[in-house]
Design a protein that fits this description.
Number of helices: 3
Structural class: mainly alpha
Distance between the termini: 60 Å
Radius of gyration: 26 Å
Helix content: 25-40%
Order of helices and strands: HHH
Shape: elongated
Strand content: under 5%
Largest sheet: none
Length: 58
Amino acid sequence: MSKVKKDIRTTDKAKVKYQILNWREYNRALVNRGDITIYFNDEVHENWYSDLPNQKGA
């Protein structure tokens, strides 16, 4: 017999089941999950590289 007490609160809720109706959209959402889009200002783009001499850790 286990000496670990079971948390009563976790067993009270019934698990909710979802029915997927649009598989094409669902699969596309899974593929795109985690994609991130970053927009850069034109000023950042122009100053991306520095003309200063290279330094350690630069």
